[in-house]
Design goal:
Elements (H helix, E strand, L loop, with lengths): L13 E5 L3 H9 L6 E6 L3 E3 L4 H5 L9 E3 H4 L6 E5 L4 E3 L4 E3 L7 E2 L2 E4 L3 E3 L17 H20 L3 H7 L1 E5 L3 H17 L13 E5 L11 H14 L1 E4 L4 E5 L2 E4 L2 E4 L2 E4 L3 E3 L2 H5 L9 E2 L5 E2 L2 E6 L4 E2 L12 H19 L15 E4 L5 E5 L2 E4 H15 L3 H17 L36
Parallel strand pairs: 1-2, 1-9, 2-5, 9-21, 11-12, 11-17, 12-13, 19-22
Antiparallel strand pairs: 3-4, 6-7, 7-8, 10-18, 14-15, 15-16, 20-21, 23-24, 24-25
Helix pairs in contact: 1-9, 4-5
C-alpha cells in the first residue's frame, strides 16, 4: 500500500497516533489489549529519551544509548502498525491525517496528536542558527560538534580576543536543561579535556548561564533554586539572573546594551508547540498548544485527542499541566484508557487528573536538586536519586546497563567516551600553521531541527 492509498475496510476501530514520544508511546502501549487497530506515525524511526540529550551534546553518552527503534518496541504488539512518515495536517471533516502532497492520507476513527514541541525564540526565529536548542539527536550531535570545535579552534588561534571568545560558552535559559547543560560543559572543560591541549588551558573556559528571571529553576522552591545557583557557582559557572537577552548573533549575545562575546551559544529558554492547532483550526494558548477539554479531547471533536507538549491541559485543580515527560506519559495512558473503554463499550473516564511526582535537575556529576512534595534532596544524595530515576525510565535492559556503566566510568575517571566531531568539513578548522581570526572561526551551519 502506498502511503496515500486508502486501506481496506477495518473490522475494528482504527486509531491513529501521530508522534512516538513519551505520550504517543504510552497511548499505544495502553491499547495493547483493546479491540482496535493502531497506526503509529512518526517522522523518525526512533523513540528518544529527551531528558538525557544534554549528555549526548556534552559527549557523556552516545545517541544509541538513549534512543530505540520504534518498530523494535512494538515488535510483539500485533495491533500496532508503525509508519515512517511526516504528518502535514488533519482533515477533521473527512477524518484523515494528511501526509503532504496529493493523496487521500490516513483515515482514522479516533486520532491522538502527540506531536510535541520545538524550540521557541519568542518571535526571534533568526536567532536559531546562532543559538541551537536541544530536542533531537541531530540537535545534540550538532551541539557536541560546536562545543568540541570551539576548543580545537581556540588551540589554533594566536589572537587573545578570539581565543577568549572561542572559550566562552553561553547557555540561555535557567530551567533544568540550561542548568544541566551549563554544569556538563564546565566538567567537560575543567576535567575531561584538561591536559589534552598544548596551546590552551581548557580550564580557562567561561560558561555563562543566562536567565531573564530572578532565579534559576523557577518552578522549584526558592531554597532549592538557591542551592542550585550556589552549586553552579562553585563549579565555575557564571550565573546571570535578571538578564534578558535582547539579541543573539554570530559574535555573541546582547544582554540589554551589554555585548557578551561568545562563540558557542545554546538555547534552553523556551519551546513552541507543533502546528497541530493550525491543522485543527483549534484554540491555542500563547505557546501554540491546543486547548483541550477535561478528557484531553478537542472541544466539539470527541474523536480527536491532543496530549503531551502539544496540549494546553489543566489538572484536577485547574492548574496547567507542565510540559514534562511524566505528564505526557500520564496523558497517553489516560487517553489510551478512554479509547479502550469506548471500543469495548464501557463508560470511559471523564476527566484527566494529573499527579505531579516532583521536579529534579542534576548539577554536574555529583550534585542534584530534587523536590518530591515535602521531600527535598540535594548534593550527592540528590544526584544518586536523579540517576536511579532516569535509568528506571530508559527502555530495555541494554540501555539501562550501558548508561549506568558509562556514568560509573565517567564518575571514576572524569572521562567521556563519545567525543566525536561529526558532520564536519575541511572548512571547520583552519589549515595547519594558519591562525584564523574570530570571524573565520565562527561555527558553521544551522542546527538541524
Amino acid at each position: 500500500m502506498s502511503q496515500h492509498a486508502t486501506p481496506p475496510p477495518r473490522a475494528q476501530p482504527h486509531v491513529v497516533i501521530v508522534g512516538a514520544g513519551f505520550g504517543g508511546l504510552e497511548a499505544a502501549r495502553t491499547l495493547r489489549h483493546a479491540p482496535v487497530d493502531v497506526t503509529l506515525l512518526d517522522r523518525r524511526n526512533h523513540h528518544l529519551f529527551q531528558p538525557l540529550l544534554y549528555q549526548v551534546a556534552t559527549a557523556a553518552l552516545s545517541p544509541g544509548d538513549i534512543a530505540w527503534p520504534i518498530r523494535g518496541i512494538f515488535r510483539n504488539q500485533r495491533n500496532v502498525t508503525v509508519l515512517l512518515a511526516e504528518a502535514a495536517g488533519v482533515d477533521p471533516t473527512a477524518r484523515r491525517v494528511l501526509l503532504g502532497g496529493a493523496g487521500a492520507g490516513i483515515p482514522y476513527d479516533m486520532l491522538v496528536l502527540a506531536t510535541g514541541a520545538t524550540h521557541g525564540y519568542f518571535g526571534n526565529e533568526h536567532w536559531a542558527g546562532h543559538a541551537p536548542g536541544l530536542k533531537t539527536i541531530e540537535d545534540a550531535t550538532e551541539l557536541r560538534r560546536r562545543l568540541l570545535l570551539a576548543f580545537e579552534r581556540a588551540e589554533l588561534t594566536d589572537d587573545p580576543a578570539a581565543r577568549a571568545r572561542l572559550l566562552t560558552f553561553a547557555v540561555i535559559g535557567g530551567g533544568p536543561t540550561g542548568v544541566e547543560m551549563a554544569g556538563a560543559i564546565v566538567e567537560l572543560a575543567r576535567h575531561t579535556l584538561r591536559g589534552e591541549f598544548r596551546r590552551i588551558d581548557t580550564r580557562a573556559a567561561r560558561v555563562l548561564l543566562i536567565e531573564a528571571g530572578p532565579r534559576v529553576l523557577s518552578t522549584m522552591p526558592p531554597e532549592l533554586s538557591e542551592t542550585a545557583r550556589r552549586s553552579l557557582a562553585g563549579m565555575g559557572v557564571e550565573v546571570l539572573t535578571g538578564s534578558p537577552v535582547t539579541d543573539v548573533g554570530p559574535d555573541g549575545v546582547m544582554l540589554g546594551d551589554r555585548a557578551v562575546p561568545a562563540a558557542t551559544i545554546l538555547w534552553a529558554a523556551g519551546v513552541r508547540a507543533s502546528p497541530a492547532a493550525a491543522w485543527l483550526g483549534a484554540e491555542a494558548d500563547r505557546a501554540g498548544r491546543v486547548v483541550v477539554g477535561p478528557d484531553l479531547a478537542l472541544p466539539g471533536h470527541p474523536e480527536i485527542f491532543v496530549i503531551g507538549d502539544t496540549a494546553a491541559a489543566k489538572d484536577g485543580k485547574g492548574r496547567p499541566v507542565p510540559g514534562i515527560a511524566p505528564a505526557a506519559k500520564q496523558m497517553g495512558r489516560f487517553v489510551g484508557g478512554v479509547i479502550a473503554a469506548r471500543a469495548a463499550g464501557r463508560a470511559p473516564p471523564k476527566a484527566f487528573a494529573y499527579r505531579h511526582h516532583g521536579d529534579l535537575a542534576t548539577i554536574g556529576r555529583r550534585s542534584a536538586v530534587v523536590e518530591l512534595g515535602r521531600l527535598r534532596l540535594t548534593g550527592l544524595l540528590g544526584w544518586l536519586f536523579w540517576s536511579v530515576a532516569h535509568v528506571f525510565y530508559l527502555i530495555g535492559a541494554r540501555s539501562r546497563i550501558v548508561v549506568s556503566v558509562n556514568w560509573v566510568w565517567n564518575y571514576l575517571t572524569l572521562q567521556r567516551g563519545a567525543r566525536l566531531i561529526t558532520r564536519g568539513s575541511p572548512a571547520d578548522a583552519a589549515p595547519p600553521g594558519r591562525h584564523a581570526d574570530a570571524r573565520v572561526l565562527e561555527p558553521a551551519g544551522d542546527c538541524r531541527r
